[in-house]
Design goal:
This protein has 736 residues and is of the alpha+beta class. The protein folds into 4 domains: 121 residues, Phosphorylase Kinase, domain 1 (2-Layer Sandwich); 209 residues, Transferase(Phosphotransferase) domain 1 (Transferase(Phosphotransferase), domain 1, Orthogonal Bundle), CATH 1.10.510.10; 197 residues, no CATH class; 107 residues, Tetratricopeptide repeat domain (Serine Threonine Protein Phosphatase 5, Tetratricopeptide repeat). The protein is built from 29 helices and 16 strands. It has a 5-stranded antiparallel sheet with strand order 6-7-8-10-9, covered by helices on one side. Strands 11-13-14 form a 3-stranded antiparallel sheet.
């Protein structure tokens, strides 16, 4: 797909012509441009959300985008319940055999290459009106174009991405397929097997066979900012046009702008043929010279002056990485297939990936020397004792231990304060200790884990049986599990799934909690205070705070009413509760927060409200969920999302609302978000098997097969009829 216009960091660019300039070939050699507007079929199949795709097992769910040749929808395989991306030839192109064949060839090319860097094709077919369609995975991620919207990429990250693209091109070129339209829009970055920046290459519709390229025949294709000179000159060409386009894209990744920018398309195309790109230092500082040399060689005007093939290019990227001392997130990629001596040099000098030894880490020392070191080093440490010259001194370890205990004293166990989200937590300090290469650090980190978990369990036990205190107690138990995941008492009371714990662990380690999440757990720090006066002061401040959720404020009121040690309710003094009127104060007698708490107290005192009173928060939340469900059935996902969010504001623990947001995120292809909301739904309704099924589906689409198996197995144990088939499919993924 292509955008009609683009905006770079340097300002707006002129409109681009379509990606494809389609040309009909005639025996006489004459070429004519296809007139798309004149090719509308008389009986067009009407498509849209909720419409089954005729004669197929797919049902369209939503429109995703338009391209020069096709329209992309989100669809679902009805029988397999698998969500896919469905690409259909544009209606205007129905009358062109050349375009239909090109569209069909896109699916064939991608399937024929068979590389994990190339998007997979599931199905291929033709509609009754002649339009070709095919399905592929619905990728969760962003294109390199979207990534560039945040600015130039770091050189190390760029090398990791370019090496993957080079591997995809090498696989395509081995099959005699030339992409001809390498550009940021056609490179997707997804998260795969818990790794970011996994490359998937798209849009193989304008790809050419090597034989056609050598004759200079077939369809002319390219995008002005990335097109090779020989394509512009209509000369015979080969796979090295892809290396030129890759060079243009690499230049833009590193600098934020393409190598050539001109006032008009004609001038831009002329620059590809005649001009040299400006040095990268004129655009940005910090690009390693070795990496710039690789990019500029790709941009050579003559194909013979470029790299011989994509493997040679990848080897040059590795050599530039070594020279510049760069590390990437993809240093464990297999080395390119180049001559053995060069490959051996790369193997000896490439940085080791940061992986555990059981995942294949290469050892730089001989095996015998390593074994001797393993045996001798502990003995040497015992004989020498601590030393100031050790890699990690005792003072450094103890300083970190003190920092962790200080954070715990401020109740920053796992969550930082809402008003200081950058504060280092005790959990983060423990993780820092565990990353130090010193036995003492590991031992002290283990001691901290036990001590902090015991403190949090004690806090949880303090509030477990108090009116309004159980939700806070559960949060303390959850924090305890962050330090000691196998703590039996905390595990039974927290009811936390392994997926939820893993998600929380990731956020805590990276400090990625949202403002809403930190606001929701703010009472934990106040309730952890041992001094009653300080505890009461903090709780009263929270109760008076307009940003405190009504449900949280009501629970705090219940706590304060049941135990004077916890401080007084924030509302003005009232008559004794046994004689208090069962009505809320008028607006003139207090702020909005006080009115909410008064309603909560009135609700607690009167089990059955009179018909004239407004519905409770729980009732209103359930009504909003019903409206959200109806919106989902109508395909109005934005309206559904709004209703579910409103429901959660009324009742943050309503499982049905979390489940609704999970379904919305799943339909939009945001599987990580779907899993997050699904985990919350299961946490609040653990005996609802359908919630576990949907959570398992989100895990499955996010490649978290072990977590999916766990949810499917639990749903099967709870009697869900659809769990067995899903469980078998997820287990097959693990076994494969």
């Amino acid at each position: 797909m292509v955008e009609p216009s683009r905006t770079s960091l340097g300002g707006p660019r002129p409109l681009e012509p379509p990606v494809v300039a389609v040309v009909d070939e005639h025996p006489s050699g004459r070429r004519t441009i296809v007139d798309l507007e004149a090719r509308l079929p008389p009986e067009l199949v009407r498509l849209g959300p909720g419409v089954p795709l005729p004669n197929t097992p797919y049902r369209i769910e939503a429109w995703l985008g338009d391209g020069a040749m096709g329209i992309v929808y989100r669809a679902q395989h009805v029988e397999l319940e698998r969500t896919v991306a469905l690409k259909i030839l544009r209606p205007e192109a129905c009358g062109s055999q050349a375009l239909a064949e090109m569209f069909r060839q896109e699916a064939r090319n991608a399937s024929r290459i068979g590389s994990d860097r190339i998007v997979e094709i599931y199905d291929l077919g033709t509609l009754p009106d002649g339009r070709v369609w095919f399905t592929m995975p619905l990728l969760r991620g962003e294109s390199l174009r979207e990534t560039l919207g945040h600015g130039p990429l770091d050189p190390g990250r760029t090398v990791g991405i370019l090496r993957q693209i080079a591997k995809g091109l090498a696989a395509a070129h081995r099959e005699g397929i030339i992409h001809r339209d390498i550009k940021p829009e056609n490179i997707m970055l997804i998260r795969h097997q818990r790794r970011d920046d996994a490359v998937r290459m798209l849009d193989w519709g304008v790809a050419a066979a090597q034989a056609d390229a050598e004759r200079g025949s077939g369809v002319m294709a390219g995008t002005p900012y990335y097109i090779a000179p020989e394509l512009l000159l209509r000369l015979p060409y080969d796979h090295r046009v892809d290396l030129y386009s890759l060079g243009c894209m690499a230049y833009e990744l590193l600098t934020g702008v393409p190598p050539f920018e001109r006032a008009s398309v004609t001038e831009l195309l002329h620059a590809h043929v005649e001009d040299l790109p400006p040095p990268m230092a004129e655009q940005i500082e910090g690009v390693p010279a070795a990496l710039e040399r690789v990019v500029l060689r790709c941009l050579a005007k003559q194909p013979d002056d470029r790299f011989a093939d994509a493997c040679e290019l990848e080897a040059a990227l590795c050599e530039a990485q070594i020279e510049a001392g760069l590390h990437t997130g993809w240093d464990d990629l297999p080395l390119p297939e180049v001559d053995p001596e060069r490959r051996a040099r790369l193997a000896a000098r490439m940085p080791d990936p940061l992986r555990p030894w059981w995942q294949g880490r290469r050892l730089r020392l001989p095996l015998l020397a390593g074994a001797i070191a393993v045996l001798v080093l502990p003995l040497a440490l015992l004989l020498r004792g601590p030393s100031a010259s050790s890699p990690v001194s005792i003072d450094r370890v103890e300083a970190l231990v003190g920092e962790a205990r200080e954070a715990a004293a401020r109740a920053a166990f796992v969550y930082p304060p809402a008003d200081e989200p950058g504060t280092t937590t005790a959990y983060q300090v423990v993780r820092t200790l565990e990353r130090l290469d010193a036995p003492t650090a590991t031992e002290r980190a283990s001691e901290l884990r036990e001590d902090l978990a015991a403190t949090l369990v004690r806090l949880g036990d303090r509030y477990w049986s108090r009116p309004g205190g159980r939700p806070f107690a559960v949060d303390y138990y959850v924090e305890a599990l962050m330090f000691v995941p196998e703590h039996e008492h905390a595990r039974q009371r927290a009811s936390l799934s392994p997926g939820e714990l893993a998600q929380l662990r990731h956020k805590a380690d990276a400090g990625e909690f949202s403002e809403a999440e930190l606001a929701a757990v703010a009472p934990l720090a106040a309730l952890a205070q041992e001094d009653p006066a300080e505890r009461g002061r903090r709780l009263s401040a929270l109760q008076r705070d307009e940003d405190t959720r009504a449900s949280v404020a009501a629970r705090l009121d219940q706590l304060a009413a049941a135990d004077p040690e916890l401080g007084e309710p924030a509302a003005p003094p009232e008559p004794p509760r046994a004689r208090a009127p069962a009505r809320a104060p008028s607006p003139a007698r207090g702020c909005a927060a006080q009115r909410r708490r008064a309603r909560a107290r009135a609700s607690a005192r009167v089990p059955e409200p009179r018909p004239s009173e407004p519905p409770s928060d729980r009732e209103r939340a359930r009504a909003l969920v019903s409206e959200g469900d109806a919106a989902v059935r109508d395909g109005a996902l934005e309206r559904a999302e709004t209703k579910y969010q409103q429901a959660l504001r009324a009742d943050p623990r309503l499982a049905a609302a979390h489940h609704g947001l999970s379904r919305v995120a799943y339909h939009r292809g945001r599987y990580a978000d779907a899993a997050l909301h699904g985990e919350r739904a299961v946490r609040h309704a653990p005996r609802e098997p359908s919630y576990r099924i949907d959570l398992g589906d989100a895990y499955y689409k996010a490649y978290r097969y072990e977590d999916a198996v766990e949810q499917y197995a639990e749903a099967e144990a709870q009697g869900h009829s659809g769990a067995a088939a899903r469980l078998a499919k997820a287990r097959a993924k693990l076994d494969g």
